[in-house]
Amino acid sequence: MDDEQLLTVDEAAARLRVSRWTLYCLIRSEELRSVKIRRRRLIPVGAVAECIHNLMEMA
């Protein structure tokens, strides 16, 4: 994977237009996939799209 396929927490929160707190809640509830590399939590770009799709289905 290259850097463009992984988003930081702040970048993913900005794309979803939610706070960092909400983003971490989505990760904890397993509604948003993420990977941990050492101390960094990163979110695959595709996981953001999946999360949006799943949330739209539930709405």
TrEMBL record:
Domain Helix-turn-helix: from-to ranges: 6-50
Domain of life of the native organism: Bacteria
InterPro entries: DNA-bd_dom_put_sf (IPR009061), HTH_17 (IPR041657), SinI_DNA-bd (IPR010093)
NCBIfam families cross-referenced by the UniProt entry: excise
Protein name, entry field: Helix-turn-helix domain-containing protein
Organism: Streptosporangium fragile
